[in-house]
Amino acid sequence: MPSHRNLLRFRTLLVFFGLCIACVSFAAKQFVMPSVQSVKSYPARDEHTNESVTVALDPYDMADKAVIFTAHYNEEGLLPIFVIIRNDGDQPIALGNMHAEFITVDRTKIPRATEEDMYRRLSRPSSTPSPNPLPWPKKVKGGISQQTRDEIDRAQFAAKAVEPHTTQAGFMFFDVSGISTPLAGATFYVAGINDAKGNELMYFEIPLEKYLTAPPVK
């Protein structure tokens, strides 16, 4: 009996430590917004020197970059693009009317995906409940885990203005499903940015080839 009791205790301890490790691993895998570098360090950018505004891009098209996410957006046809807007002027600029488009090499215009667009793309039919006791994310309406919903909410570019001599950044996602090499020959188009007086700035047009042909960062 003592040896049997000890074996049960040992098994209980194994399950306990396994749960602890799983909880730590799950907690450690959380989305963190990338640090914003100097806007001139991004090869794909459009600088409006007369308006003192720059829009720069950093596509997260490669697996080594996409590890910051918990969801596999690229595998589901969603291209994350880190968008950086720098205002070097002395007055704020407004982004409330801003809209962005991803224009493919054949001139197909793809609008920025909304959160609902992303939910539909990422959702999967609910599977049979697993008896596994490990604390994996619970599925909510639409087959999207709450963790993924929170990540999408935190990752999205959501700024409504850029104050003087500051930068705003965040991700925009584009549905490029069915396009084998979406960045090749593509252009990123941004319009609807207004100055402090309400006048619309000239549109920004950024060829993604600037990103593809840039020398690797050492």
In short:
The chain is α+β, with helices and mostly antiparallel strands and 218 residues long. The chain has helices at 2-28, 63-66, 115-122, 146-155, 209-212, and strands at 44-48, 53-59, 78-87, 93-94, 99-103, 109-111, 161-162, 166-175, 187-191, 204-207.
Would you give an account of this structure?
The protein is of the alpha+beta class. It has one domain: Immunoglobulin-like (Sandwich). It is 24% helix and 24% strand. The chain is built from five helices and ten strands; from the N terminus they run H-E-E-H-E-E-E-E-H-H-E-E-E-E-H. The chain is globular and about 45 Å long. 25% of the residues are buried. About 12% of the residues have low confidence.
SSE order and pairing:
Layout (H helix, E strand, L loop, with lengths): L1 H27 L15 E5 L4 E7 L3 H4 L11 E10 L5 E2 L4 E5 L5 E3 L3 H8 L23 H10 L5 E2 L3 E10 L11 E5 L12 E4 L1 H4 L6
Antiparallel strand pairs: 1-2, 2-3, 3-8, 4-7, 5-6, 5-9, 9-10
Low-pLDDT ranges: 19-28, 125-141
Strand order of the largest sheet: 1-2-3-8
Question: Which fold name is given in CATH as the topology?
Answer: Immunoglobulin-like
N-to-C order of helices and strands: HEEHEEEEHHEEEEH
Give Rg in angstroms. Answer: 22 Å
| Biggest pleated sheet | 4 strands, antiparallel
The fraction of residues assigned to DSSP E strands is 15-25%
Query: What is the tally of beta strands?
Result: 10
Secondary-structure arrangement, i.e. CATH architecture: Sandwich
Give the N-to-C terminal Cα separation.
Answer: 64 Å
